[in-house]
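Narrative of accomplishments. A recurring question from our advisory board has been how the design workflow behaves on a single, concrete structure rather than in aggregate. To address it, we present the structure tokens for one chain from the evaluation set, followed by the sequence designed for it. No filtering or post-editing was applied between the two.
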């Protein structure tokens, strides 16, 4: 080991991952010093022989240990404790088989930690956040690296969180990241995964000694599990129950946003019912983007009356300026929808500008959107076709809106009979 590198132990839990495990081991191989891998698949699991074969060909010291699965929180804690006792590395990196470790060309995590040693030698700095991406459309931050000598554990029967005291550092997302691979790995390979998660969470919620934070979190993820099972009424019920306990604004925001999405999945078409949770989400965090996007979608796609259009237009453009494009939600950590933030939200702003007769502003914003390097060529073509089709079929509301605004401000009308559908050419 070079004296210009830190030492890192890989801590990985596997179960029936034979078809993907070699890719995962290869992705992280150059960034670790040793490994402690936990098998919860039993003696018939064919994953372990492949791991042994890989490390025979690509030698690193390490251990493979069989454990009986209890729940995610307890099993992960035991796996982490085994890594702390069996490895002498300074750091422990814990990932899952559905996580591809990503490093920019020329970047090595062991060297990176050495380079920032003057920052991380502080005893208060003990865990490190990685950016996680899901299908390039959702991003969130989670700790994946911890100093070996620090007391910590995982809390929760599923969707467990890392419980640790101390300060965190963000690992440079331009150099390292975690990509969640859909439909594989410990948390997603079982076809009944969501039903099993719901069962674990229902059992957890039967306990009387849960803290308010644990109860609200379990209700939130129970809502997510039922949503993924397509049991939307149960999902909405649990999101609403979580709102009775939850004090974290980001989670309350997502509970309201997910209620809206479940209503959409149920094919609810009533505008007032659909937008109510969106307005509640915006009230929780006015600076966060996603709810504004869905509100604009409902307003345009359902051809809502002019006064509702004006209300949404005012809400959006009072909180966001096109001069600030491109936008980001980097100050928020929980499930950012980056395809909405970077592309869909500004696109609908361009449509709103067009409808309000700000045609030049609309076209300028649209041209900025399709000039983004983060949007691939095919999506740029789709956006161009969609925008061209929209402006060819819809006439700006122009003077109708202005007259309505003037009359509304003067108190001469409380509602207006015209609808956006009347503007179709």
């Amino acid at each position: 080991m070079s004296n210009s590198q830190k030492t890192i132990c890989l801590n990985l839990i596997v179960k029936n991952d034979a078809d993907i495990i070699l890719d995962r081991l290869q992705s992280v191989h150059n960034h670790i010093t040793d490994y402690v891998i936990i098998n919860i698949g039993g003696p018939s699991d064919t994953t372990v022989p492949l791991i042994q074969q890989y490390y025979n060909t690509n030698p690193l010291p390490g251990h493979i240990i069989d454990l009986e699965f209890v729940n995610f929180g307890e099993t992960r804690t035991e796996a982490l404790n085994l890594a702390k006792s069996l490895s002498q590395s300074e750091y422990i990196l814990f990932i899952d088989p559905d996580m591809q470790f990503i490093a920019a060309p020329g970047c090595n995590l062991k060297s990176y930690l050495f380079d920032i040693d003057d920052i991380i030698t502080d005893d208060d700095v003990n865990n490190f956040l990685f950016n996680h991406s899901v299908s390039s459309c959702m991003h969130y931050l989670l700790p994946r690296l911890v100093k070996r000598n620090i007391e910590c554990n995982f809390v929760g029967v599923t969707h467990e969180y890392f419980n640790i005291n101390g300060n965190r550092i963000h690992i440079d997302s331009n150099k390292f990241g975690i990509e969640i691979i859909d439909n594989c790995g410990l948390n997603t390979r079982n076809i009944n995964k969501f039903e099993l998660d719901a069962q674990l969470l229902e059992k957890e919620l039967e306990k009387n000694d849960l803290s308010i934070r644990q109860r609200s979190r379990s209700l939130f993820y129970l809502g997510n599990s039922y949503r993924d099972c397509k049991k939307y009424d149960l999902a909405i019920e649990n999101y609403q129950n979580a709102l009775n306990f939850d004090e974290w604004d980001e989670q309350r925001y997502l509970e309201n946003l997910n209620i809206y999405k479940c209503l959409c999945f149920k094919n609810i078409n009533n505008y007032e019912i659909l937008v109510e949770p969106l307005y509640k989400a915006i009230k929780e965090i006015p600076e966060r983007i996603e709810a504004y996007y869905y509100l604009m979608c409902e307003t345009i796609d359902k051809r809502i009356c002019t006064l509702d259009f004006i209300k949404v237009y005012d809400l959006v453009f009072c909180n966001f300026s096109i001069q600030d494009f491109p936008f980001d939600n980097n100050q928020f950590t929980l499930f950012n929808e980056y395809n909405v933030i970077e592309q869909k939200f500004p696109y609908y702003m361009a449509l709103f500008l067009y409808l309000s007769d700000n045609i030049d502003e609309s076209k300028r914003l649209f041209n900025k959107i399709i000039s983004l390097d983060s949007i691939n060529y095919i999506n740029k073509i789709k956006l161009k076709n969609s925008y061209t089709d929209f402006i060819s079929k819809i006439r700006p509301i122009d003077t109708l809106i202005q007259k309505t605004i003037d009359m509304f401000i003067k108190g001469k009308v409380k509602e207006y009979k015209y609808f956006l559908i009347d503007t179709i050419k």
